[in-house]
Amino acid sequence: MSSNDCNQPVYTRRHWGKANKENHHKIHLLEHHLADVAACFEALLGVPTIRDRLAKSGKLKEIDDVTEARLLVFAALHDIGKANMGFQTQIWESQDFPDNNTCRHAGHIQELAPVLRYHDDNTARWFFEELGWDEMSRWDDDGGETVASFLIASLSHHGSPFNLESEINPNPRIWQPLGRLDPRQCLRNINRLVRSWFPKAFSSEGICPMPSEPSLQHMFLGLCNLADWIGSDERFFEYCDRPVSNYLDVAKSKAKRALAEIGLDISLQHHEFRGVPGFGDLFGIEGAPPPNSMQKSVGAVPVNHQLVIIESETGSGKTEAALLRFAKLYEEGLVDGVYFALPTRAAASQIFHRVRIFTESLFPKGYAPEPVLAVPGYLWIGEAKGTYLPRFEVIWDDKPSEASQRRRWSAENTKRFLAAQIAVGTVDQAMMAALKARHAHLRSVCLSRNLLVVDEVHASDPYMGAILGALLHNHLETGGHALLMSATLGSAARQRWLCGSQEMKLDEAMNVPYPAVSTPSANGGSIVGTGKTGKTKSIQIQAVAAMEDFQLVVERAINAASKGAKVLVIRNTVGSAVQTQKLMEDVAARDGNAERLRNLLFTCNGISTLHHGRYAGIDRQLLDKTVEDQLGRSQADGGRIIVGTQTLEQSLDIDADFLITDLCPVDVLLQRIGRLHRHGRNDRPAEFSAPMCMVLLPPLDTLTPLLEESLNGLGPRGYVYEDLRILEATRRLVVGDPKGEVHWHIPDMNRELVEKATHPVVLRSVVEGMGGEWQDHANEIEGQKAGDVQAAKAWIIRPEMSFHSDNQDIGFGGLEERIRTRLGDEGIEVVFENAMASPFGGQGEISRIVIPGHMSKGLAWEDPIKPHRINGGFEFWINEVGFKYDRWGLMRIQSG
Questions:
Q1: Which alpha helices (H) appear in 484-532, and where do they start and end?
Q2: Which residues, in sequence order, are bridge partners of residue 875?
Q3: Which of 610, 690, 713, 813 is most buried by a 10 A CB count?
Q4: How do residues 398-450 score in pLDDT, each as one tens digit?
């Protein structure tokens, strides 16, 4: 090499695989990057749970050495497209091009489509020749079909399936030599290295065909994606721009260290594990009673049962039962971690603190992982909070050591949340592992090693239920473990999870024991009653046709609170809740004893307010804590009124004396009632020594008018509770016998109540007795459900499809944004140009906020948005649509 050559930038003389974004002269050789990713893939296969899941995905007893070596070859070949000169010249300066030759910049994935598609093309001929395709294609017994599928899967490592029919038609010159770089010579060198790295893959001894099960290809892709993310992290694999003869050995050492530091390799943690502590010690509850009957029943389920369903009343300790199940599975080495999936961000935030205490108690000191709050926008791990910096870097407020910072790898990116050993998040984060959205395979393979816990599974609508069903099926098929929880699961839903769609007879369904623990079995499902958990209460139900009589609602709430009662008022919509709260404040302001009445109202940092889902994350956390302080275990004496929406029924540990609630489906109503007399207390007002619930009904003799015009979220055009059949059945339950009071004995009647309002036989009976309009409504609802299920199926990944033969059907297309929106996602997040002060004061600043889907429909914007201060809050505009945020939460500014 001449001295002139040596003076040229190294990237003009050697193929690079990674380059520093700020200093292009700092590169990492392509051959080294391929070795890094292959080494990470091999290290991942060294994790027992991952290796087991990979084997089960291919319906194999184990991954043999030859199959492993061949998978490593495909992992190494994931970036062979980077050999093209269009990619290599991306970082060249103009003076680097010889003889003023220019080559159009290109990518390295879809640019391979024409090469792989046209085998008779000159470039394609030498490409396959240098790749050693003739020999590799004999690794399977179906003419190279399986081998082609694994190659395509490896090329899909950026998160979306490789499209063989891509119309990208790059300049053919990208595959021709340029200066000292020759793509053909590069491919020849890669082939030589790969053969030396993994000789068993090419050995003629003990040849066995590649497993042809397509689901193995999908699991392989997820692992390849994960290996590429780890192998591309410069914190673990520093750049090297010179060939190193034993580089693979160096990469293997770095890969093992990376997996240990990230927390994917837990072998040392498991070695130090000394067993599951006692119940009280495990949950940080001093003097805690022993596990209740339900928790004991869950603990008695054999570990070889992959799916467990818990049905038990609100407040009975289902969360602790799920964590006990995880501890047992972890002790047996059957799972590495747990993902706790909640229906909302707020619910996830509530559970997160309890899981953190549990984690610190379960694992030996010095080996406990930091739980991740897997909620986009929160950036929270353990007790530390993070802030995003440019280039996807994160700064943590506790200033961790370098080792601790690396341990937080999974928390730094939403796509990596499921790689955390212990995570609490929303159910949609888990469901994205089953949908045609980028990096779904990465999410799936990360989740496969952990126990998947889904809370409030009854809340899944048909669309989400279909997705959750697909997620569970794939998770269990690959050897994973799952646990579903609900206080109010109907027989139809339970049977769907256990054995498909077998419908129980109504009387049989009502006689199923409750509480219960269920597991799948050969005859459809085993349902075992757990016995009473020790908490029973008789609820006096009063049905009043006063849904629109806000004055009456306010008077009843104030009257009860004046007698010392803790009162919850739960309305179906934010608008109704705000109207109730405003009237409450108006009454207090004009009353002769205004100060006394104001003291009964809910305040946060001295600001009168209410509780619903349209608050910024930092304020919602504050509101949640304040609600629990005022209505939790340690509540102060005296009356209190808290007005809110469905957010008050989810995951908050609150204890009310009197509940005023809008009519809603019976399973939701039971969730709300679960906040009544939640804890044993002896200081309740005499009039409320027994729990009381007033259910607000529409001021109508029948719900038929709601078929055409919704009321307070009720009806097919109400967008909250659309199925009037269930609402009518629930109405009949709360009205009861006109001659006497209605008392519900909870939880003894839970099963009966849910079945009497949700069972298919009951719904058919309601329709038959209400006339033709209701039959039309039933047809509309069932048609909508069927349509939702079909829409979900169209977006669900099908692991039975091959990456080669089914290539046209396996693609993701441009569905991701639609998928995220349709998930019921709690809206779209807006990032502000400058942080704004919280209307509740304190140190909190609001830098982002979520706009609910129904409020952001049709809007398009680019972050950041500039907010403007107003009295008591701030406002911002997107196009011509304005939004205001203050103590009432986020509201759309009415035009005109």
A1: 491-499, 506-510
A2: 868, 884
A3: 610
A4: 788 888 888 989 988 888 999 999 999 988 889 999 999 889 999 999 999 99
